[in-house]
Amino acid sequence: MPGRPPRWWRRVRRYRQLLAAVLAAVVVVGLATAVRPPEPGTTEVVVASADLPPGSTLTEADLLRAPRPDDALPSDAVVDPTDLRGRLLAAPVRAGEVLRQRDVVGGTLLAALGDGLVAVPVRLADDGVATLLQPGDVVDLVAAHDGGAAVVAAGVRVLAVPRATATTSVLGTSSGGAEGGSLVVVAATPTDGLALQRAEAEGRVGLFWRTGRSP
Fold first, then answer.
1. What is the rounded CA–CA span in Å between residue 17 and residue 81?
2. What's the pLDDT tens digit per position in 13-68?
3. DSSP state, 122?
4. What's the pTM value of the predicted model, to 2 decimals?
5. Within 13 Å of residue 166, how many CA atoms lie on the same side as its CB?
6. What is the torsion angle, in degrees rounded to the nearest 10, for the CA atoms of residue 189, residue 102, residue 87 and residue 59?
7. Are 114 and 129 in contact (CB under 8 A)?
8. By three-state DSSP, how is residue 115 classified?
């Protein structure tokens, strides 16, 4: 009957078994890592710090940087907030929404504002008319109510035709008789801007085209 293996041999055998177990665990972890899908990449982009209405001039307080998944980013997502500070917002943006280059009015049209003019969002009564508008168009805005109509702002330039928005007026309430309608942003004097807000709240706003379009 063979004798028991010496103590040193039993110790070596235990070490070999432990080493085999460790190697097996390493192999399992390696296989799990190999088959696990890679974590999606992210990029820090500029997002809105709060709900922002069209016609707003963007300030540092309006802009935040936050990571967003690369596969969900629009192609024109803005990554540097300095690209947007002082720019005019052409479309409404929700809090946390990624800001895009298309959401702001271009520099050429901003320069067309000039001294003494402001950007005024106006909701038109006819959706179809808005689809024909382009930034740079020069129009007369007409208010219709109580069976009559009058030019409220003459020769104003269209700055932007934002994407569709909820049917609320620039005063933050439903427009009287102008529900539906599409939003446009025009350059007007402060006096004309107030008149347009009153006209929108009281009735329906339409337009006439003038000849000429800014570059």
1. 59
2. 777 777 777 777 776 666 666 656 666 788 999 999 999 877 678 899 999 999 99
3. E
4. 0.49
5. 11
6. 120
7. no
8. coil
